[in-house]
């Protein structure tokens, strides 16, 4: 009998707190950037739910904008 692999795929979408930890800043910094139209690209779902995509966070870091 072959053992089944129990793979879980990590989501490329992060909450504000997860994205902040990824960038080594605070959640408050992320919220301030959003309110000023700065920082990495983010997505609003349902008008309230904020999510960041890993690729956008990486692009932001590569641009040296932090």
Number of strands: 3
Radius of gyration: 15 Å
Distance between the termini: 51 Å
Low-confidence segments:
none
- The average pLDDT is 88
- Secondary structure tally, helices: 3
Instruction: Write the element-wise H/E pattern from the N-terminal end onward.
Output: EHHEEH
3D architecture notes:
This protein is an alpha+beta fold and 66 residues long. It has one domain (13-63). 42% of the residues lie in helices and 15% in strands. It is built from three helices and three strands; from the N terminus they run E-H-H-E-E-H. It has helices at residues 16-23, 27-36, 54-63, and strands at residues 13-14, 43-45, 49-53. A three-stranded antiparallel β-sheet has the order 1-3-2. A hairpin with a 3-residue loop joins strand 2 and strand 3 (49-53). The protein is globular. The termini are far apart. 14% of the residues are buried.
Topology:
Elements: E1 13-14, H1 16-23, H2 27-36, E2 43-45, E3 49-53, H3 54-63
Antiparallel strand pairs: 1-3, 2-3
Helix pairs in contact: 1-2
């Amino acid at each position: 009998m072959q053992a089944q692999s129990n793979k879980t795929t990590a989501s490329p979408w992060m909450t504000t707190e997860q994205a902040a930890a990824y960038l080594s800043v605070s959640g408050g910094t992320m919220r301030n950037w959003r309110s000023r139209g700065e920082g990495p690209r983010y997505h609003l779902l349902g008008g309230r739910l904020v999510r960041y995509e890993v690729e956008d966070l990486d692009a932001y870091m590569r641009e040296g904008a932090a």
